[in-house]
Design brief:
By secondary structure, chain A is α/β, with parallel strands linked by helices. Chain A has three helices and six strands. The C terminus of chain A is likely disordered. Chain B is built from three helices and five strands, in the order βαββαββα. The model of chain B has no long low-confidence stretch (mean pLDDT about 90). The chains are: A alpha/beta (about 160), B alpha+beta (about 110).
Chain lengths: ~160, ~110
């Protein structure tokens, strides 16, 4: 089953750094948001940026990268504020940031763990704690066992 | 203040232990224990099963205040209040049961 991927707002950039540079040069030089959306069915990561100009007008832009070998050119050269955002995306999604001046962990402990914001990585917290919704509501014999939203059918601790 | 909200309060008398909030909560921060009792009403041919709420907890350490539980409750047993002063020194003290949850929104400072 393939989930439909809704088109995000803003332009799809072919050349990430060149496209963002164009927007920065056009006055959208305040980095508001830099994040990644995981599309496992499409085998892609979608990198999304939101930039704001001096009149508080915002513009979105995005680009798609391969999910198996995710590589993205760093924006730190043109947007220094992207530094921590890119380090976060590197550890949370496993995206290699080419040309990043400081490609080290930002938030996670320095131990080998899966990239926790990938959709196929179950939360360890959810593995050792039973789902509170599994209890049947009183007086009803459930025809089927309810399952939590978004839970993989075969939980795998290591993702 | 407008456009702000604080804790979510519980009206235990309205809760039917239907588990909808527990199952919809993305953070798994609500837990419910309940049992049923048979109630025979005068004139009724058969006794009726009535749910009794034994335990209702919200773990504020997990809650992200999305409000899905408030939206999904069919009986308006959950509602937003303006209360924000319920910090705790221990994580376990952020797990509030029926008594604490019913107090939210009852005092106005």
């Amino acid at each position: 089953m393939t989930a439909p991927n809704p088109a995000p707002p803003g332009a799809q950039l072919g050349d990430w750094v060149a496209g963002v540079t164009e927007l920065v040069d056009a006055g959208f030089d305040y980095l508001d948001l830099l994040t990644v959306v995981d599309w496992p069915d499409a085998g892609e990561f979608e990198v999304v940026i939101h930039l704001v100009n001096g009149d508080a007008q915002g513009v979105f832009a995005h680009t798609r990268i391969d999910r198996e070998a995710p590589v993205l050119d760093s924006l730190v050269g043109i947007l220094p504020a992207a530094n921590w955002h890119e380090r976060e995306l590197a550890e949370m999604f496993g995206v290699t940031m080419t040309g990043h001046p400081e490609p080290t962990r930002l938030l996670l402990a320095d131990s080998p763990v899966a990239h926790p914001l990938r959709k196929d990585v179950p939360l360890p917290r959810r593995q050792d704690r039973p789902w509170p919704g599994a209890k049947p509501e009183p007086g009803r014999r459930s025809r089927r066992t309810p399952r939590p939203h978004g839970a993989p059918d075969q939980p795998d601790r290591d993702g | 203040m407008q456009n702000t909200h604080g804790a979510i309060a519980l009206d235990a008398s309205a809760c039917t232990s239907c588990m909808l909030c527990v199952r919809e909560c993305p953070d798994w921060c609500i837990e419910i224990d309940s049992h049923t009792v048979e109630v025979t009403e005068p004139g009724a041919r058969r006794p009726r099963s009535v749910a009794v709420l034994d335990r209702f907890t919200i773990d504020w350490g997990l809650c992200m205040y999305c409000g899905i539980c408030v939206e999904v409750c069919p009986f308006d047993a959950l509602r937003w209040t303006g209360d924000t002063d319920y910090s705790a020194a221990e994580v376990d003290d952020l797990r509030h049961g029926v008594e604490r949850l019913e107090q939210f929104g009852t005092t106005s400072d």
